[in-house]
Amino acid sequence: MKPKISYQRSRIDKQILGKLLPDYVNVQLADNRSYVYTAIDSVSGNVVGVAVFTMPETLHTAAQLLYVIVDSEHRNLGVAGNLIDYGCDEIKSAGAGYVFYRQISENAEDLITPFEFAVNIDFHAVSVGTGLLVYSADTVVRNPVIKKVISEHKKYISICTINNFSDPLILKYNQKVKNVFEIISESTVNLELSRFVVRDDAILAGVLVAPVNAGVLMIHGHFPNVSESEKQEGMKILIAKVIAEGILNEEIRTVCIRESYEWSSRAMTEILGIPEMHYREINLVRTL
């Protein structure tokens, strides 16, 4: 007989949740835009499942399903799916338009189960099998190749900030983007945390989004408006410029670079060397 389960939003009690959740989740719970939902067995009163969502400032109207766990005795009963459905309904009322779900692992096979689970509860794949190149901040800062890359590449001389989504550079860029997830908008890009590459013909070639969270600088760049060879060169100079201009600071301990494509992996290993860790990841999204 299926147990009777109730679902609710819970206050963040670190003493209780800290025993259930990994450290990286607890660190992000300090954000006052975090949402924790619990599944409770109506008979015993015990918490049998926890789902954690966040609505980071960097994503505006998007939320992220950060973590979900269900006690072993209540698995395969639909509890996790129902808990996430409940949470999605709640955060939709808080202003979220869609939810991202990301999982990473050193072993690609470990991602099969979470991928199938997400697809079965109305998430759709954005990318599968892309990687994360992980470097310590010390390794990146001391890298002698950075200055050399900057001096040798003159085409991408303009690395700039943009303060308005109606800027002509962004409007022209978005017209050429074929993948909706690469569009520069309030839902996907925090302008204060981003740097843009402008070619010498005044075309916006790409964007580097580099938010800092819990001591980790997460770098993700895309260059939809240029050739493959230009993408690789643009990514290299953009990373080099961002590091040289001092975005790295004392708070940053780790640098993660998302390799969206094979060319981005080649560009990063050329400039930064072999990563200290290399993970695979899946990214899915659910529209609310």
Strand percent estimate: 25-35%
| CATH architectural designation of the largest domain | 3-Layer(aba) Sandwich
Instruction: Please trace the helix and strand order, writing H or E for each element.
Output: EHHEEEHEHEHHEHEEEEHEHE
Structural class, by secondary structure, is: alpha+beta
The CATH class of the largest domain, by name, is Alpha Beta
CA distance, first residue to last residue: 31 Å
Task: Indicate the overall shape.
Answer: elongated
Number of helices: 9
Low-pLDDT residue intervals, each spanning 5 or more residues: none
Query: Main sheet, how many strands, which sense, barrel?
Result: 13 strands, mixed
Percent helix among the residues?
A: 25-40%
**Overall pLDDT, averaged?**
76
CATH topology grouping of the largest domain: Aminopeptidase
User: How many domain regions?
Assistant: 2
Work out the number of β strands.
13
Computed over alpha carbons, the radius of gyration is 21 Å
How is this fold's topology laid out?
Elements: E1 5-10, H1 14-20, H2 23-28, E2 34-41, E3 47-54, E4 62-70, H3 79-93, E5 98-105, H4 112-120, E6 124-136, H5 137-141, H6 145-152, E7 158-160, H7 168-176, E8 194-198, E9 204-209, E10 212-213, E11 216-222, H8 228-244, E12 254-259, H9 262-272, E13 277-287
Parallel strand pairs: 4-5, 11-12
Antiparallel strand pairs: 1-2, 2-3, 3-4, 5-13, 6-12, 6-13, 7-8, 8-9, 9-11, 10-11
Helix pairs in contact: 6-8, 8-9
